[in-house]
Amino acid sequence: MQEKFRALVVDKAESGDVSTEVRELSIDQLPKGEVTIRAAYSSVNYKDGLASIPNGNIARMYPLILGIDVAGTVVTSSDARFKEGDNVLVTGFELGVAHYGGFSEYVRVPAEWVVPLPSGLTLKEAMAYGTAGFTAALSVQRLEESGVTPEEGEVLVTGATGGVGSLAVAMLAEKGYDVVASTGKDAEHGYLRELGVKEIVTREEMSPETFKPIGKPRWAGAVDPVGGKTLAYILSTTKYGGAVAVSGLTGGTSVPTSVFPFILRGVNLLGIDSVYCPMKIRLPLWERMANDLKPNGLEAGIVHEITLNELPQTLACILQGQIRGRAIVKL
Q1: How many CB atoms lie within 10 A of CB 81?
Q2: Domain residues of the chain, as ranges?
Q3: Cα atoms found within 13 Å of the Cα of residue 240, Cβ hemisphere only
Q4: What is the fold of 131-271?
Q5: Over the stretch 16-51, which tens digit does the pLDDT of each residue have?
């Protein structure tokens, strides 16, 4: 194991200014943990972008190596569950938030955060998923558990060109659902059609200025990484007994809704937390992501690869909604 490695570090000066740069670090600067990983890939999430800015309210320590995802090979382990040479992945928990993260050639983490790489995935495919893909898969699984089947009708996916949205579209289409995608990007309609959407609606249609607490029912289910007013409108237009899986806040944290969708139509609002999802759910879901939830050509179209040096610009772009699909980092 080499003594020096490169990582993307965010730091805050006494003046309060925040800077992000690639630094050379030594192995002994890594935090405590039972498992040390030689990283192969990481991936870029909206949360990583927030962690890189002063008012993002994500980073809980400075300096901090960013990156809430990583996949690689174990180089040392004091935990019997893992040995040198094992391929593994880590998403969520405190990684890249309050613990040195995955935008790093070496990562050291607690063993209880580590997931063995499923046999149906490569390390690169694992990070084509990353937190966004795990969130999408968890959303799809929760819809299934709530009784939303392809026979029930259309399923809406908002923020459809983003990481969660793109992968949710691909997974749902693979499972035979009629997927309707919401986007504000006219130029990406071809991309969404290739992922398998049946119809595309505009962002504005999903967040009108005014709407009734109970509108015309349309959706059997929805995957919503947007939140805010969009979520309120989706709830008002979801069919009786339908379900909405919400995982994001890019549209805001306030949801101007009422109790009517819940008490008059029996709509289920499903909160999706991929960060602290327990291993009893996490491990079998990653197995599904390597099998029945895995879209054909996972890396084709959805993924583009970048380097550590390109990360600062990519983080700025994801905050501005300028990243299509998934950006993965080769380490």
Answers
A1: 13
A2: 4-117+301-330, 131-271
A3: 2
A4: Rossmann fold (3.40.50)
A5: 899 999 999 999 999 999 999 999 999 999 999 999
What does the mean pLDDT of the chain come to? Answer: 96
Q: What is the pLDDT of residues 93-117, one digit of tens each?
A: 999 999 999 999 999 999 999 999 9
**In the Cβ-directed half-sphere of 228, how many Cα atoms lie within 13 Å?**
16
Element (H, E) at 319: helix 311-319
> How far apart (Å, rounded) are the C-alpha atoms in residues 206 and 182?
7
The reported pLDDT for the residue numbered 244 is: 98
Task: Specify the CATH class of 4-117+301-330 in words.
Answer: alpha beta
CB 265 within 8 A of CB 238: yes
Q: The whole model's pTM is what? A: 0.94
DSSP H helical segments within 180-307, as ranges?
189-195, 228-236, 260-264, 279-289
Residue tagged 């008012």 (tokens): 55
Strands 179-183 and 69-77: unpaired
